[in-house]
Protein 1
Amino acid sequence: MNNIVIYLICLLIIPASAAAESNLSDACKDYRSVLDVSDPVSSGTQDIPFKTGMLWQIKSPQGKINYLFGTMHSQDYAVSTVPKEVSAVLQQSDVFIMETVPGQAANQTFLDMMVFKEGQQLDNFLADVVYEELVRQIQDYGVPREQVIVIKPWAAFSLIGRPKPIRAPTLEDNLLQIARQNGLEIKSLETMEEILSALDTLPIEDQIIILTDTVCNHEQIIRDSKDLVSLYVHRDLAGITEYNNQTHYDEAVFDRFMQGILYDRNSRMLQRIENEFTAENIFVAVGASHLAGEEGLLQQLSEKGFAVTAIY
């Protein structure tokens, strides 16, 4: 997802008391994760297709050669630096396609879709102590106390479910800069509305469960993000697949979430990538999770007769 910056003024939050911490622990006890993901890759990876690589040459049955690159939306320098192998291929391309091109229109769509329109309030869906903890956590993501109450649950867990933003470009930002500097045609693979609809159409009950889980396990989620960075840096698609397949608080909710945010989008992306790959010299960049696994883009392109070769 694009690097959406919300320009809001942060307010001072009163520190939680010990009693509040105790109540929060009680509210979160069923959500507390006991997983150890310090080594998320398991023996199950031998069955995962296309295990290693982030940059792939895709040769169509008609002989057209294009490239598909897996990204990670991170401001970590280890991730955001464009490898020379990737930069070289991108600079030689004619068209750069990313999930959605950032800009004012995309930002406005996010801001419009992230808030309740029918007078609903987020605090009515959460336990008081969970809501107050969310208010405390979300300050680091540019949302002041008085705005939290109107944010939809999916927007809240999307914001806090990653390390707090810093003033640094993401990998996608740097890829886009290279494309612009080299005069490439730039396209979106999806609209921002299409991407966010995968979250916005989740049942509100599912959104609340995911948000509560994210609030209760926020510190661990941020710690675990370092493991995901390591997997990405090592170009470990099999490991990323295993990371995504960890046990979750409610597997049915997680399955519905993954169906909308990953598998349904994979199907839409696949159709559009196929259409684009009737030409050549095209460079497509999508989140690495879209490449990996049996339902990933690499496997599906291979099944459709494309020759898929790891470049980097």
Protein 2
Amino acid sequence: MLSCKNIDSFSKMSIIAQMKDRNNKKEQILELVRDSGIVTTAEVRSHGIHHEYLRQLRAEGKLVLLGRGRYMLPDAEVTANHGLAQVAKAIPKSVICLLSALRFHEIGTQAPHEAWIAIDRRAARPRVKHPKLRVMRFSGKALTEGIEEHDVEGVLVKVYNPAKTVADCFKYRNKIGLDVALEALREVIRNRICTTDELWQYAKVCRVTNTVRPYMQAIV
């Protein structure tokens, strides 16, 4: 039989083991955040760690809640594209498009207060409150072609390349304004951000060749 002394010793060892396990799990979470910039509740669960540890780390001031189920380090370096990193983490299948893509590529003078994203026409509307979203429905090649992947604060962000973005601007000129599309077209040609061949390629994808042609001829 175990003596009271042995039972007490066993209990202490058990408590110490539990504390070490909790600390290890918290450190695993912090390591995930350091590697990826932003971590989600789903990612933590996929590593076999209960989401309660996220709450504890937040209470300890070691994590900051960005939005529903998204966390980052309180002292993490925040860039001008921080909102796009948040969007990419919350909606992995989305692609940054139109005004946000122009801003990302430093084309034109637009400074949108919303994150413009493209998603599949059949996809459910994202339930994200922050940052504010402008959701566009793309399909077929217009959705899948011209995508670049960029590392933003450790998060992989999908953005349409400059030529595809210009073509999209002409396709959705009634939503963003023809003047925005023209400004973007002039800038990418004059600054050689992309080639005319690339512009034609994506104008065909977006079915705006007849719309773009006279403006390109005037600029080139």
Protein 3
Amino acid sequence: MADRSSKTDTQAQLQKMQRAEDGKKAMAEYEAEGAAMRAKTEKLRALRLAKEAADAAAAPKAAPKKAGRKTKTKAAPLSDWLKDRETGGRNS
């Protein structure tokens, strides 16, 4: 019986070590994928910023708009609106 127990203990320890190694490998792969993703993102960001800068330099300059005051149209009196409602619309 003691012989069997030591075999199962040894097997359990071996399995535990294998799981630990698998975990380390999985974590290393995960970190490598993250680093690759960050590098790719940084490269694409640099390309985008360079393109935006080139587009901004190539774009024609727009003439500055005058900062004048806009004129509002004068609203019609309420009495005109009421007359229009009486002669047209749903009430006719």
